[in-house]
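Hello again, I could really use a second opinion on something today. For a while now I've been wondering how a particular protein folds. Please have a think about how the structure follows from the sequence. Here's the protein in full, and shout if anything looks odd to you:

***
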Amino acid sequence: MSKQIPSYLKAWLYAQGSLTQQLTKLGQGQFCVEPLTGHFCRLTKADAQWLKMPNTHTSWVREAYLYGSERTPWVHAKSIFPILSLQKQARIFKHLGTRPIGYFLFKRTTPKCERRILYLKQGWTRQSCYTWHGCKFIVQETFLPAFEQFITNK
């Protein structure tokens, strides 16, 4: 039996454009990124298939919490950049620090995006496979319970 997407989350899961901008607006101008990890690892079989790359490829994985106007994180973000995608303009993604990916991804461009929606143990998740300046990578955003509570109490 598959889980039903709550109606209050549908707009967020299917929204186009920058989640950074959307969360900043919701947080009335407040937004920050807390980097958690950055490490190299092999692509999973599922991610490799989606990116149309062999799963023997190494990728740079960045995980971070995204905060709005609350002290509790709203989103757990995980970005997967195959090493081959960290070339040319995309090399900036390996050195983001506390800067959001969306700041660069949507600056003067609208990248091609394929999306899938999943339910993971952390919560409802949208995975986006972006093609940006010829580079392909995955951005996964899981909406955490604090976010769901915030938007249902608004």
